[in-house]
Amino acid sequence: MTTPSPKYPTSLGTSTPDQIRLLGQDLTADLMGKVTFGELAFWLVALRRPTPSETRVLESVLVALADHGFTPTAIAARLTYLSAPDSLQGAMAAGLLGGGSRFLGVTEDCAAYLARVLGEHEGDLPGTDAGWDELALAAVTRTRQEGQFVPGLGHPVHKVLDPRTPRLLEIAEEEGLRGPHLRLFEAIGRVHEGVLGRRLPLNGAGVCGAALADLGLPIEMLRGFALLARAAGLLGQIAEEHRRPIAMDAYLAIDRNAEYVDPTQ
């Protein structure tokens, strides 16, 4: 008796000797040259093709998160490339592994925070800015009382305004996609000072998370979009390191200035 071969269902990519199909489409005839990479990434995750408006917001998010200078992720990639120039994939991976709660991961963390607050008021969301402010004030107050931080507030460089935030809000508004996550995030920006005692900017990673959540993308996948964007930036950082290296100088600056400290003191 012949044992039937196991089946492994997928809605993504399949191949035959003469054809590649992706998302039910012929890769070469239906997708190549007809969809952008960002559009395809959305489609692969959501299993639906985004509208032109959704694509514009998503592409804006990817551009916003691609690179931000000598961040820890960029430095990690450059130093790994210094140590192993034969391993481009290692340098890329080193940078991506740094996408956590302080850098890049805030995109998902902020969206998850906003989604939790909205979930508690499902079916009864505000219709005015005053209503959003009231909802945001209660959320920030509770978060402060719990000894937690509101993801998406503050930035190590942009102390007053993260320039990405108003621009992404503007794009979302233009495309009719300024949804509840963005509205709540904006309200948090208006009211948090009264709770925290200081004014902090709404950072770019946070507004990107809110925008992606308003596109209906799964919250638990949003860090992946931040990493997808940063992969492009890391590739650029590594290419620049190859052309105009600084990693050795960075390494020596730290190593030559290391100072021993007696652990018993």
Characterize the structure shown:
The chain is globular, with a radius of gyration of 22 Å. It has helices spanning 27-31, 37-46, 52-65, 72-83, 88-97, 106-119, 129-145, 164-174, 180-196, 204-214, 222-243, 247-255; strands spanning 13-16, 19-22, 25-26. The chain contains twelve helices and three strands; from the N terminus they run βββαααααααααααα. Strands 1-2-3 form a three-stranded antiparallel sheet. The longest helix is centred in the last third of the chain and has 22 residues, at 222-243. By secondary structure, it is mainly α. It has two domains: 36-98 and 221-249, no CATH class; 106-220, Cytochrome p450-Terp, domain 2.
How do you describe this structure in short?
By secondary structure, this protein is mostly helical. It contains twelve helices and three strands, in the order βββαααααααααααα. It has two domains: 92 residues, no CATH class; 115 residues, Cytochrome p450-Terp, domain 2 (Orthogonal Bundle).
Produce the secondary structure layout:
Layout (H helix, E strand, L loop, with lengths): L12 E4 L2 E4 L2 E2 H5 L5 H10 L5 H14 L6 H12 L4 H10 L8 H14 L9 H17 L18 H11 L5 H17 L7 H11 L7 H22 L3 H9 L10
Helix pairs in contact: 3-8, 3-10, 3-11, 4-5, 4-11, 4-12, 5-11, 6-9, 6-10, 7-9, 8-10, 9-10
